What does this fold into?
Amino acid sequence: MLYSEQHKFLYIHVGKTGGSNMERALKQFSHQPVLTWLDRGLSRLGWHWNFQRYQFRQHDGANRATRVLPAAVFADCFKFAFVRNPWDWLASLYFFLKRKESHRHYQRVAQMSFPQYVDFEIRRNARHQHRFITDRRGRILVDYLGRFEELDSAFQYVCAKLNIECRPLDRISVFKHPPYQELYDECLKEKVRRHW
It folds into this structure.
């Protein structure tokens, strides 16, 4: 998550939606407090004694921001996030985890077929894009929800809305994988449709 006090925005980074590239482009406009070891430790514990010294984690959701930022600051920010077609999103997660040896699920996922991975995620019930952008009651907390499939034009819309100039997004850290449509049979498609 990136917060900008000056430009009054809050970017919610939903994993595998082009967020690392967006963070690189927006970081120059975001609030980068100089933190002590104590500030970092308190942030990791989720304590927010001073929101200007709080370090958001990369994948903190909008609900976390409602607990850290004063209500007036949160309301004044333009809050935005990007989401992705769930069939494509799961394929991207799967191939990312199969290659990311430092990830805590690498050992397990590296041994799985794609259908096994889908079943694994359904059992865990931990990965949901909507949880990044809603409160606990399911109410949407963001002002703008862009689509990964229209990332470049949606990002330009955000930049225009914030009145900032950003260069086009880089396409760095893209894990190549077969077209997601090739990974699904009708049964697997339906599982994903029902769960996500």
